[in-house]
Specification:
Eight copies of one chain form a homooctamer. By secondary structure, the first copy, chain A, is α/β, with parallel strands linked by helices. Chain A has six helices and five strands, in the order E-H-E-H-H-E-H-E-H-E-H. In chain A, strands 2-1-3-4-5 form a five-stranded parallel β-sheet, sandwiched between helices. In chain A, strand 1, helix 1 and strand 2 form a beta-alpha-beta unit. Chains in contact: A-B, A-D, A-F, A-H, B-C, B-D, B-F, C-D, C-E, C-G, D-G, E-F, E-G, E-H, F-H, G-H. Chains A, B, C, D, E, F, G, H: Pfam families: Nuc_deoxyri_tr3.
Chain lengths: ~150, ~150, ~150, ~150, ~150, ~150, ~150, ~150
């Protein structure tokens, strides 16, 4: 049983790498958004031409990124959504909403300070954790039944 | 053709009433979340008993509210999502994600200052507006084809 | 917003009537299985002819009842599943499984003594309660936002 | 044609191994829940932290197990559900309900004494058997058309 | 709970009227194919112009009839399929296959002589009967729980 | 049985009115796009503000119109698509593609000169006609079984 | 692009082998029902025990065969249904109905004498042919675009 | 993450080869319609026999081609639709409509002169481009996040 896991949300720390390293020896396939911030912001105009209006600049880029996101969420069994300490991160909550509506198993990762603001997202999740290590432990348990010792 | 419209998001201003008034004479059915802030926060423990831990206090309430939200989004043709000036409003983005994944037509309403942070949500929408009046005009146009004069 | 609620499970007490009475003044439509125990057991052979083998006697009846159950669960927004004090009640858990897989909002009602045995069903529910009064309060809150005073 | 089979239900005997051995030479892929009883009960708190309340202790664990169950049922062509001699086993009936609603072919395995109590589940099944050997024979017949001699 | 019932199959006897009369006082909505044999055969060319080739003559007509059949099966909760004494009646079995794949509850009605030839269709049904009276009794039981006395 | 019919395509002749008049006495509900050409082109900028670039001017309008189209096609049992004598009419073919993929019954209406160019669309249709009168005759036959005399 | 093809219907001639041989050098995966007539009839009682009543004897067998049929049709891109010269063959039409409702591409194979009786099935098909050679030619064309010379 | 891409539309230039060459070193699987114009037009009668009427000649061929198109669109993550300079190309818009309704990510490729006529198709797309090179750049960015330098 190969688990297909999409790692959504915050792109300014190395939490994805931590999870992948923690699962290096088990049968899990990971996917992720483009995590280079500038590429993610400017991909649309870089390929399809500049826009005078910031709205359309962002619109072109967000749609290109959506091609990847929709594919990855659609293929996933599990969607892990991390909310970091900074920024609005509405795209993370938007991904969580899509994943939930599509019947994916959702794992949410955030610090205690955001607990009340994320209560609707947490209520839709099958697990709520604070650390990458916990995500890796969950994936290992789901995959082969072993628990941390 | 009756339009079924769910008004998601911000609950601290009277934008829902403005839209409803602007559509009072056309065939539109509106639904909304419970907009009493205290009821929304405490409904779970009020009915099912107190919790020592804030996480479970919120979890019980968020799940009760989800019964209403899921029904309303599921029945809707159009989901209007408003992002206000304050708070994290992750639940608004979460509702938008669900609506999009379920194939609902999404209208997003926010001020210009949030444009960049909401680019993924906006990119999934069929209309992005700033005012309640614009939402009412859109619903009227969709319903009967008339435009503001 | 009319709520469509299916009341599944135990048929030896008047819990359904209590819920309906508690919701008499709000916009909720209820459905239920055939609650006459003998009719439910014997409907198949009564209409389609006797069977020598108890397995087929029961099989004929269970399939007729399934016509009603599938219709009712399919139409429901919310499925309330009550586990009583007696019997195996595997059909209640089976209905809960169907409801969950179909994306219905599930409310589970049982006494504390069954908590551990029902943990998988409870984990799939949006509310877990002990009394009919609590179910009625939840339906009222979901319908119009009012809480018990 | 690879058959994907999920073996749900009772975890206190070696029926899964018997089926797998009986199908060792044909093209069938098996999956199963975590069958270590203690791990299954305590996985949630082991990874995500202790809970004072037994309900939430169990809730955390049941949700982790649901990640695996949902994946396995979702991938399965056939779901075999065994009801043993002991315990309530509502989770087995709950899995059967999910499998049936998702259009999976359901095989039920139980002793004659539970026939009447399981009539609704049996009525939804494409085969009802008593032994592991019969399940293996069915899978072999479905796979390559050969019958026991 | 209104039951929506499609009466498929044989068009040379008055079995539909018998069922409708037997259900005149309960909440059931019936639909049926066009039962005028000549109209059903010739509708296509009557509206869209003659065809030299019998295959296309029939093709045009069968497609018009499919507009009605697809609508009626799609709206139905229950599809009753009657196989008469004469003709190939492949369209009846074809309708049964569609109904089954769409998750409709299927009731099959035929004489004992066709039992072996219809075993696959019967195995997909929730009830197999011989008479219109039995169908009416089933619909009554599903609707209000009352059995013939 | 109420038929719900969406009339897609050409907006420069009165074919919709002809069909509606021909069906005035039977149980058919019609929907249609906004057929005022200027409103349809300019609705987006009229409500949401002018665009310097024609692409975005059209994009805003086309998305507003899509809210109506998606609702109408989604609710329809039958989608009639008319290709007129002029213009590219790619939106008509685009609507036909959506309708077909969603399992709607498609009726195509065009002159003989476009037969070869429309062969893929015609091949997906259940009826291909040249006149409004023929569409009305089909809807009448599907509704009540009567043929033109 | 691997084509997955299910060969349904008549089991008394070697038409399946002819198609497979005609496609031996292209990328097509075939599946089929169990074509041993006695095994197909008696599989249920052979594994699950004898039945006194012929109806239940057949019912047990038909349900086992359904496990294979549902899997094969569900996995198929294309379902070829052959109607032979003899027998009622309602199961072939039943399979065709399932395949059509599930959105599979249906190819029907029969002699001219059955044309009128099969008009509804033919009208749902994307190809109607008389010989195995034609089926093989179609699969080859769909796979690689080459036509018979 | 393997991207599955269907290249729909115009068949009179080598745009498909340009895209495939531009993506030769990344993990993308391409599919396409039969691009030999004569084969595409005549496949139906070549295999299934001549037709006197051009409508049925084309109908037979279009249905064979639909077997391939439906398979390819169904398997695709991304559907690229190119509108060339000539012809009506209603089949391209029809494919785009199917792809959009099935939730595929749509990329549209056309020259500026067709912008207004294609506004509804463009509005449903996640990217609108003019050249094969841009399509290849988009697929590369979606696949591995790298942008043209």
């Amino acid at each position: 049983m190969t688990l297909n896991v999409y790692l959504a949300g915050e792109i300014h720390s190395n939490w994805r790498e931590e999870i992948m390293q923690g699962c290096a020896d088990i049968d899990v396939q990971f996917s992720a958004p483009v995590t280079d911030h500038d590429s993610s912001d400017d991909c649309g105009v870089a390929i399809m031409g500049a826009e005078a209006d910031k709205f359309w600049h962002d619109n072109k880029g967000a749609k290109l990124n959506a091609i990847r996101t929709r594919k990855a969420i659609g293929d996933a069994d599990i969607v892990v959504v991390r909310f970091g300490q900074k920024y609005k991160q509405w795209n993370a909550a938007f991904d969580a909403g899509q994943a939930y509506a599509l019947g994916k198993s959702v794992i949410v990762m955030h610090q205690a300070e955001h607990q009340h603001a994320l209560k609707e997202v947490d209520a839709a999740a099958l697990a709520v954790v604070e650390t990458s290590q916990q995500v890796a432990q969950i994936l290992r348990y789901v995959q082969d039944g072993s628990l941390p010792t």
